[in-house]
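Project outcomes to date are best conveyed with an example. Our students and postdoctoral researchers have been running inverse folding experiments weekly, and each run begins with a structure described purely in tokens. The record below, which covers 224 residues, was selected by the lab manager from last quarter's runs and is presented without edits.
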């Protein structure tokens, strides 16, 4: 883990009044604990099971963000504690979040993940799917979820122009919704974009929440 890197990233993120989500997926609880002792409170994981295991071993004041793709059958395990769900990419996922949040008497904060990359592999709503969901009468009936904003992942490329264009597009949509459908709703105020490789561009393009893993914790090794 690189604590010096952490301090400089944090300073930059703070200078934009943005929130730093420390992405600790695949990393041991000891690393999370060490960063938590430096004052980091928000941690991001991309597997529900892994997040639940870690949550049970770590201090209660940690805010857990689920940033990965959501398997609906596992939502119930995180429902009691997860503070923000970034990866809502289908109406069905939102319905399940609502159902499980209701059971534990919570209102679940979440972000809608938009597909902005020029890649098939990334998840997320496209414009049409988003419009359909927003127009669906049953959408307005969901009492136990609160849409806090949008999340997106740019194309994995060295082409800075392309990344910037995708982030710009997401920001425009975010502002449209903020001034439109969500104008009379409380708390639509989070734009989650930017990771280790592109967070500087994301901040310039209006991100107010960045999700950074490898720059803080070092490269991930999946071959265990
Ligand atoms: C892993 C992950 C990140 C962090 O990636 P790094 O490149 O290590 O910073 C951010 N967002 C999502 C959705 C991720 O899955």
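After processing, the design step wrote out the following sequence:
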């Amino acid at each position: 883990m690189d604590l010096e890197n952490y301090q400089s990233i944090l300073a930059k993120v703070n200078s934009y009044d943005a929130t730093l989500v420390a992405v600790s997926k695949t990393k041991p609880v000891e690393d999370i604990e060490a960063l938590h002792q430096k004052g980091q409170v928000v941690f991001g994981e991309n597997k529900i099971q892994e997040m639940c295991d870690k949550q049970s071993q770590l201090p209660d004041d940690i805010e857990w963000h689920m940033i990965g793709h959501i398997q609906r059958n596992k939502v119930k395990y995180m429902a009691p504690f997860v503070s923000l769900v970034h990866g809502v990419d289908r109406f069905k996922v939102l319905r399940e979040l609502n159902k499980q949040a209701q059971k534990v008497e919570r209102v679940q904060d979440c972000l809608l993940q938009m597909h902005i990359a020029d890649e098939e592999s990334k998840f997320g709503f496209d414009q049409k799917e988003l419009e359909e969901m927003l127009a669906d009468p049953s959408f307005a009936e969901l009492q136990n979820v609160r849409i806090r904003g949008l999340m997106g992942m740019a194309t994995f490329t060295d082409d800075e122009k392309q990344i910037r264009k995708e982030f710009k597009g997401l920001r425009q949509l975010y502002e449209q919704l903020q001034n439109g459908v969500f104008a009379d709703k409380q708390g639509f105020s989070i734009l989650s974009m930017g990771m280790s490789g592109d967070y500087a561009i994301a901040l310039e393009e209006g991100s107010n929440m960045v999700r950074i893993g490898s720059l803080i914790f070092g490269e991930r090794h999946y071959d265990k």
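DSSP finds ten helices and eight strands in the chain. The CA atoms of residues 35 and 46 lie 18 Å apart. The training component of this project remains on track.
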